[in-house]
Fold these 2 entries.
Entry 1:
Amino acid sequence: MTENAKPKLAMYWASSCGGCEISILNIHEKILIVDEVFDIAFFPCIADFKTKDVKGYPDGYIDVCLFNGAIRNSENEEMAHLLRQKSKVLVAYGSCSYEGCIPALSNLTTKQATLDTVFLDNPTIDNPEGILPQPRYEVPEGELELPVFYNTVKSLDQVVDVDYYLPGCPPEPPQIWAVLEIVVAALLEGAPLPPKGAIVGARDVAVCEECPLEKHEKTINRFYRPYEIIPEPGLCLLEQGLVCVGPATRAGCGALCPQVGMSCRGCYGPLDDVEDQGAKMLSAIASVIGVGDPSMEEDELEREIQAVVDTIPDPAGTFYRFSMAHSLLRRANLNGGNGKGEAK
């Protein structure tokens, strides 16, 4: 950084819904501090930047890049490598870049099945010729190119080296400001950065630890979808039969969702000592199913337990909603695959 020059900030949107881009505005008036401290080097959501602009920067020109979105196609991967090369600090911003999030649920199926659903087997589609997008297509004016659609969705750190992680779908304002404040202090005051690989602004305890809802001994004999019951205010949602992933999720959000009657979905990811968030929650669920008694025959007990489990409508989508790409499963073993799926 040259004398009197501001630090350079970038933000990029790969495969995600776009909520992470908008979440920056949630720091409210502190956005004026960001404007005062940083020059924006790349932020296509708010200004007309081009990829060629980034390619023209010297390596390490960008001081901090907030990269949100999973790696779904070849353009996402190309931009991940480019921004890693041009950035001193690369932050996996939000659940999609951190763990794959909702886009990575397509790892439960195949690339072809996804394309068929979107472009062919869809009641709202008018595509009688069954045309699918092609990476390259010749037209009179020349060759058109589209990004190559990958079979397997990856998290950012499965493609490039990542310095820090900022979880959330999207991250909450205290976490957003925490990472910006840390970088500003390091750049302008020489303060030390957190250890590489740190999850910034979150806590290493479960959401349940910061959730104010009253908890008792949990015993559950069925589960409900949110529209099926109105939860009793002030009482633990899991105890009321609503699948709340708080026991398997890192705290730091302030347990905002449970406090308004919406179960934790798990967007802050697993705790440090948890390798697979979905498996951790499955274990927690198994420990609170309250059916049967020791006098029952094993097959009868299994049937009662299975009846309770059957009231969870989408176990994979529920327990791996945010963490599929980072899970031990990573993707479904389909069509004779090796369980890890195609790399691309």
Note: The first helix runs from residue 19 to 23.
Entry 2:
Amino acid sequence: MSSATPVTEPIVFRWHQAEITAIAPVTPQVTSFRLRSELAQSYRAGQHVDVRLTAEDGYQAQRSYSIASAPDGSGTLELMVEALPNGEVSGWFSEAAEIGDRVELRGPIGGSFSWDGPDGGPLLLGAGGSGVVPLLAMLRRRAQVAPEIPAALIYSARTRAEAIALPELERLAGDGSGFSLHLNTTRDAGGRRIDAALVAGALARIGRPGKVFLCGSNRFVGAASDLILAAGVPAGVIRTERFGS
């Protein structure tokens, strides 16, 4: 008589406990949270996780956040949470979360929107606002394992003060490894939106890209995709992640 083999739920579908181990400001509206979790052992740069909070009365709230860190063997991962008006999850993180608190994570999610050194390049990255977070993870991974791969980041933010991880990005752009940062701001004096000249400048630094990753609002990703296609980049190498309106 045979017995049934137990079915193990894939790790990506299970909820895992995570403990907050560090909290640090990133911009006036964005805070970094380092969490210790089993999921830190099995993700790729660019992926995201679902975060679930459960109140004492059983009420649950859930939201997806891109992972900002690159895999580093520390057993932790980093999320960067933007405080949003009336945000249930972001509000808890920005107003109440403390080191030692626990949340639940599920993932990693987004296999097609991810990158590691063996995937090659050159890399053309485009971000609008908080869409820079998964691309930051890719750049951190590049610095770890493949700094020889040319890379360029087109980053559109409202102001320099709101640009996430700008000091780190500027440091990476100045280390001589072949990464260039193309920052444009839309609300600073003299600011502008992404345009053909910005795309051309990025492509001039890296040549023909082998991988393109774009993340941001629907409006930003749509505009960036059109400009990059118009510059002659094949549609097949472009991967996008969109949020909001």
Note: Residues 1-9 have pLDDT under 50 and may be disordered.
